[in-house]
Design brief:
The protein has 13 helices and no strands. With about 280 residues, it is an all-alpha fold. The protein has one domain: MetI-like fold, CATH 1.10.3720. The radius of gyration is 27 Å and the shape is globular. It starts with a helix and ends with a helix.
């Protein structure tokens, strides 16, 4: 019986065996993933395509041009809104970097009554809808009688930026040796010196990663900023929204493409910093 089976296998042509082995196998997971990527990124490709449209309206293609990108450099309203957005983002991220780092270290290194409750409340801005944060901040500012301005947007953005920074720093803290500070204290360092010279350099990749993500989210925010902005405190998303009410123009398409490219670069930089930090920790 065995000899018969081996004889039948020998009679199969070699070419047929090779073709059967080389036959590509496309699973439904691959097809599904490609369809999802197409669904997510096709609108971005269309937006990028029409940002080079010579026509004033995006409905029809009339020719290729870079004029809309050059027009953005001369648009004073866009430049003012961009300066406001950068001011808000840098100020909110700077405050959140300090407070978020201290909060993460305190939750990881110290014990106090209500620690579990405080930990849960501190990360609530990550899951609370933006509209709820916007309304709550507006009501709070009205109750204490603070006039809306650019700095009230900063205060509102600090609320959710702290949580993102603290989350990134906490993830970094979980991979560190908890006895590093104790060793520094045993060698004669003060608690402040142990924090600045030993713990802070180890936390730096997590801090930078959290700050970069918070910066992107702050630049992208429209809802919270529109509720807490005062007169003349127009951020870039607010300016874009006010312009698209009359129709999406190619200059807005060009601005959107630039913002997406810059956001992608910032996110890639954050991931690179996180990856380098992990590699250094493993060494």
């Amino acid at each position: 019986m065995t000899d018969t089976l081996s004889h039948q296998q020998e009679e199969i042509p070699v070419d047929m065996l090779l073709q059967s082995r080389r036959k590509p196998r496309i699973s439904w997971q691959v097809v599904f993933s490609l369809l999802m990527f197409l669904y997510m990124y096709l609108p971005i490709l269309v937006l990028t395509f029409y940002s080079f449209n010579q026509s004033t309206y995006s409905a029809s293609w009339t020719g290729f041009t870079f004029d809309w990108y050059l027009k953005l450099l001369k648009d004073e309203r866009i430049q003012t809104a961009l300066r406001n957005s950068l001011t808000v983002a840098f100020a909110a991220v700077a405050i959140a970097a300090l407070l978020g780092t201290l909060m993460a270290v305190g939750l990881a290194r110290y014990r106090f009554p209500g620690k579990g409750l405080y930990r849960g409340v501190s990360y609530l801005p990550l899951i609370i809808p933006d509209i709820a944060i916007a309304v709550a901040t507006l009501v709070f500012l009205a109750v204490i009688g603070i006039r809306l301005s650019l700095w009230t947007i900063v205060a509102a953005h600090v609320v959710f930026c702290i949580s993102y920074v603290a989350l990134a720093v906490s993830a970094r803290l979980n991979g560190l040796d908890p006895h590093l500070e104790e060793a520094a204290l045993d060698l004669g360092a003060s608690p402040l010196q142990a924090f600045i010279q030993v713990l802070l350099p180890e936390l730096l990749p997590g801090i930078i990663s959290g700050c970069l993500i918070s910066f992107v989210l702050s630049m992208d925010d429209f809802l919270i900023a529109s509720f807490t902005a005062g007169t003349g405190a127009t951020t870039l998303p607010m300016e874009i929204f006010s312009r698209i009410r009359t129709g999406v123009k190619p200059d807005i398409n060009a601005l959107s493409v630039i913002l997406m490219i810059l956001s992608a670069l910032v996110v890639l930089l954050a991931e690179y910093v996180r990856f380098q930090g992990e590699q250094q920790r493993l060494k």
